[in-house]
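Run log, item B.
One chain of 237 residues. Sequence copied directly from the ordering sheet:
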Amino acid sequence: MTQIPSAERLIVALDVPNAAEAHALVERLGDAVRFYKVGLELFSVPGCFELVAWLTGRGHKVFADLKLHDIPETVRRAVANLRGSGATFLTVHGHRSVMEAAAREKGAMKILAVTVLTSLDGSEYPEVYASADVAARVLTFARAAEANGMDGVVCSPKELSILGGAVGSGFLRVTPGIRFQGGDAQDQARVATPASAFRDGATHLVVGRAVTAASDPRAALEAARAERDAAAAPARR
């Protein structure tokens, strides 16, 4: 696997309602964070692209978590536009035509395929993903993503162990659903602690409200980093 700097393996989700609050949170966290996720909520407000430019101008990396899913030509054009935004990661839904279109325009930007959303627990079947269980669906999506030019997948911590031998060692496994010991899972069904996610093979962790809603976000971040450092084997750092 390509060496990933330790400081870039923990991604903080800017799950705040506007650009002003995002700026304030980034200023508060200072140099403790190298990588930020900007999702649909922030991308739908004025000043979003200026926020992304501000983040990259400060030396941060940006994960544009947009989960694109549309007809292939629309996805292709959207990826081409986003390629110039400075984002490092972009998400698309893990369907073949969408992934193929994204792969054609990604350039240096890394495209991650969304497998099964962490808010799902399997009880939604067959309405959502036919009759297969969650792990089987994630594995199918991951193999298809690698075959169709994706750089990695987004999956819950619960499926990390099954991906280890199923995809290449350089294939990224970006994992939301991270909660600290004793934390509330809130709106996600398949969650884990930072330590267990890294042990099971995550390349990056996305930490949201466990940090951003904490009374002391920087202290919460340092707690997550301590769990990461305790769990990560030397070969994965």
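Observations after the first pass:
- The radius of gyration is 17 Å.
- The chain has a mean pLDDT of 85.
Flagged for discussion on Thursday.
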